[in-house]
Amino acid sequence: MSKEVVFDIETQNTFEEVGGYFVDKLKISVIGCYFYETNSYEAFEEHELPQLWQRLEKADRLIGYNSDGFDLPIMNNYYSGDFLKFPRLDLLVEIQKALGFRLKLDDVAAATVGHRKSGHGLQAVEWWKQGEIQKIKDYCLQDVKVTKEVYEYGIKYGALAYEDRLSGRKAIPVDFTRKQVEQPKINLTMGF
Do residues 36 and 89 touch, judged by C-beta distance below 8 A? Predict the structure, then answer.
């Protein structure tokens, strides 16, 4: 049984609020995950992150969208190790390798699996300010579901899709299979 984890984060604040692209100043409101091992979707609030770290340390691979450039560096603000040294797959990195440019998850999902995300991350920041944590969890887990569907489509067909304004739907060749490379040693969370 696979121990892969698809994940996404939402933040309490924005880059505009912290004065620029400073991932070290962003705070997590919620991390949503899909655990293949248990076939379950779960959301973790900021105070629950130590429980999540132990589970991520045991994962075969972490799967996200723009996770290398956004999610994992922000998660590292809360973690004593380095999530960027974990076995991982950033779908956006693979798309950029294939096309030479970046695409929004929303656009890839619409062309690949036929539906879009349920909103955008700035809504989640507003919900945080209003204390509407359940709305953040629901939104985040919907993003995780969309990411999972795009990932599984790429595994099954070796391609994703996007809409080109000039020529319509175009394929994005991808290889999401796990490549066997020796992973560096990582710090594991203390079990106290």
Answer: no
